[in-house]
User: Fold these one by one.
Assistant:
Number 1:
Amino acid sequence: MLQNSNLNAFLSRIWRANPVVVLMVGLCPVLAITTTAYNSIGLGAAVSFVLICSGLTISLIRKFVPNEIKIPASMVIIAFYTTFVDYFIQAYFIELSAYLGIFIPLIMANCLLLNSSEIFYSVKNSTTHSFLDAAGFSIGFSIVILLIGSLREILGSGAFMGQQLFQEPVNVMVLPAGGFLLIGILLGILNWFRSRFSEKNDK
Amino acid sequence: MNSKILIKTAASSLKLAFLCMISALLISQLYLAIEPVIKQRKTETLILLYRQVLPNSAWFENKTAGNREFIAGFDKQHVQRGKIVKLNVRDYNGDIEILFGVDQENRILGIKILNADFRINLEDDSSKSDFFKKFIGLKFHDLKLEKNGKDISIIPGADVSSKAYIKALKKAVEEVESINATEQ
């Protein structure tokens, strides 16, 4: 049975502490890669795999690894899983590998993972807590990038999942500028929604 | 006191080294297992691309003419039907890798840009395809690789990259002509 704190940790990563739209971490690949929904699913899956596996591994070995070397140890573990994902995508999703390019190896240097490894290292957190935390982070990250990727593909290419929907799209939306614009609009909407929600709760 | 810190540091370093060794060992084993699959997939993709630029050929063979390398395309009767040159062109904007397929009469059958560092620009794929379609079926002497030539128009909204593509095309034509001259 899930404890309340574990469930809270899981849910907060999806909504209250969403890595992209609240914590604003890992934005570089989000802006560069989310030009299509397919790319977003690929990046979301890759980051989720690395995040969950490294979270579990770190929480399992933290008792044997002293605090002084927790950052290099975390980086070695994250690098291991990133390399694994990189090889896997090259072998079985070569087209996706070409699209994601340098952003697959760069998952290792993603602030999202570095930020999370601190949480996984926390002694008070159990392995279940770390797993749920990582899963929450992954789902929160994946939902947001899928939303951004889908909107950018529809608006910028006039297509969704490769299927042409209309002609004469707004090309700027597939450029990084379009990504910034869309994330800004999304943040504005979410903040407005959040403030309305908290006002209602206060009353 | 100092010796305690030294021992603690040494122990931490050894633990980190052990973790690195385990990771390296696992990664090397993974690489050994997956490398043949990666190679196979790359070869399959490359053959797929060769078929796109030289559709009249069933199989391909790497060849050399002098010091120039090219890919010869053969039909099922083992008759050479054309050749593909693969070359990198350095532009101020980055590297362009181009596959350029011509038949035995020097008629262009296919052009494919494999990668361009300036991938993110205003063009979309359809305009790029239209741009390259203009050259398909043309012989070398029909080509007008000039900005205002009658066979070329700049890709709408992507002036910089279409100039780079023309530069790459010019180099590809030169390469094929050099290979032809060496073969004769």
Number 2:
Amino acid sequence: MKKDPPRQEHEITQLLAAWREGNQAALDELYPLVYDELHRLARRYMSRERKGHTLQTTALINEAYVRLVDQRNVQWANRSHFFAISAQIMRRILIDHARRHAYAKRGGGARQVSLDETATVIHEDLAEFLRLDEALKSLAELDPRRSQVVELKYFGGLNNDEIAGVLKISKNTVIRDWNMARAWLHSQLAGSASN
Amino acid sequence: MKPERWQQISRIFNRAILLDEAARSAYVKEKCGADSDLQAEIEKLIESHQQAEGDDFIGGLAVEDVAEHFTEGKEQLALHNGQQFGNYLILDHLGTGGMGEVYLAKDSRLDRTVALKILSSDVVADKRRMQRFRQEARVASSLNQPNILTIFEFGEVDALTFIAAEFVDGETLRDYIRAKRLKLGEILDISIQMLAALDAAHEASIVHRDMKPENVMIRRRDHVVKVLDFGLAKVTEKRGNTEAVTAEEGMSEFTTAPGLIMGTVNYMSPEQTLAKRVDARSDIWSSGIIIYEMVAGTTPFRGSTSAHTIVQILEKQAPSLAQAGVPRELQRIVDKAIAKDPDERYQTAKDMLIDLRNLKSRLALDAEIERTSPAVTVEYARPAPTAEPVVTETSKKNYGLIVALIAIVASLAAVFAVNAWRSTRNQSAVTPSTPVASTPARTLTYWITVQKFKDGKAYQQPFDISGEINFEADYQIRLSIRSRQAGYLYILNEGPRNAAARPEYVVVFPSSTANNGSEFISANQLVQIPDQSWLKFDKEQGVEKLWLVFGENPLPELESIKAFANRQTRGLITDAQQNKAIDTFLAAHPAEKVRNERGDTLTTLTSSEKVLVYPIKLEHH
């Protein structure tokens, strides 16, 4: 079924180009537009989710890209930028969501508090997910590039080549950054969980 | 940490992890020299690295890690206002229930407002159950009982499964009870309509299984009651058909799936809480509980947890409604409906309905008597703080006398009413009005909308025709069909053929959502083929036939065409044997058996057979 073409597709293309040329204000305008689209798609993809069926973030972002960006006058660099910003937005969508659903209690596994209609469940994995986000923020202060590698890979679903393209570093550097960042995040989480 | 230190750590770390175990510690030691803090730091990171590798830490994708939680919660809506969803324009989000989100939407084809329910993914996950639910819901809807919500369409758009149903502008019985105290008359009106819906459904062997005030709607303008979600409960029930499990096992049903907020157990029958097979009598229990709640303001069995409630449902007697000040007859009806043993309950919704109706007419009689004795005002509903008149001290002495009088008149009236009802029922059962009514007649009406095209563009206004017509090559058509009964519709296109040529059929999809070559349609549902665009003719001239096959049940002879119902191949049936089998099937149902009444713009086809088969001939040049 043919979708209505998003009205803002031209606008988004322009904003992407402006942002690439160093206009940070363009990012502020871009953000909510992409957020809405990704959020809608993520919701739809997840409701489609079945056992044994892998959810592909890149497919999701790609769909958003195709829908949002005017394909006729777009440069390859715009695509990397789109993916970079989308990774960031996916992170925010997921964290926002996790925050709403993981009740602050930390440490325990999933516990069913009551058997009644008001049953509340604490999602330990969501709490862990939020701790990861916190650790990633600390990493960004320490080493912005390595935290970006994690963001692009884990939240954006980009592969090493794509990350290398977006960050303009070699693929080997991507791999090294990833190893270091992951080990550091793991040690941070292990530390906080035992507290 | 200083950036230089961080860079130093990462340099050594990245080298070290490339080395094997033995070389690694020597390398780290050598690089760190006397700086034991640095060494400890790096060794900790290396250990973390190994653990991270081992348990694939953040090795997947974030979206997968939170996917299962993502679909929960009300704030994540699948659709937004103003969005076009298939043929529907989303107008508003009405609410979110256990089964999914409900929207107010406009069907752009028919310009009517509908309630659109998007079923949540866990509801649609089980294909087999979904299929059964579709059938049951459609059958319930097709009963055309005014108290059963009408379903217009089942479909899937963008991988979301939806139900389009009649939109009821009103509130649920839940909100109704919460907002105000119900008067006895209202309680009876609601109960009677509720039972009438159940009676019709049970007659068609459909059990609701999830009767509760949330599933009963009261229309604002006329207070007509609509029962929703027939058959839906079955889809979500985890193991409803397991026989004879223990109470403990039964309860474990409610403790599965962490994160799942389960529905209420308050209206469940004892057999349901035990996860035993349920039948129509379980619905009777649930409606008894609903009536109890309307009277008393609360359900009879309420524990602090579901488990406690279940124990009460199984073991405790419901607190008497005597204090609620309702007529003893209503207490009796409720008590009978909520007997623990299904065999001691009303056995059919009809029996309960009769008792409720009789009570209502008895009370109408009471009201008549009341009017003629102004000294007494009788209030049957709860004697709670209310502006309504209640029985006063001074009038109480007259009350007993009048009640006795009412009782005599009423019991006479009840006997009369039951006999009257019985006699009408027997009459209609024994002497059907016409012989045709005893066999299931199939009635289809159809019309063809023609759009002319010129140079690939629509040219002039489309127009409707009945019957058959000679077409020009640049005509494109749309076929509209409406059936008076519910049933299974198959449409086959037979291409032009010469006497010697082999038959060749094409499966025509009855709707954009039908993927298997047949579609269950509800009574009076409008089917447009195709629903989005137009049917085109190829260059080949001659007579084409659009075969309409409409049966009460799925037709085993045509089930095999489903294998060819492929949109990629445009439904072309490529197997010669299959084409021949269709030929034989169609020939066995001669068109002469179908009565054909052609009006100006529509044709009505009637058959007294269980299956109506009719070719619409389309001649084109």
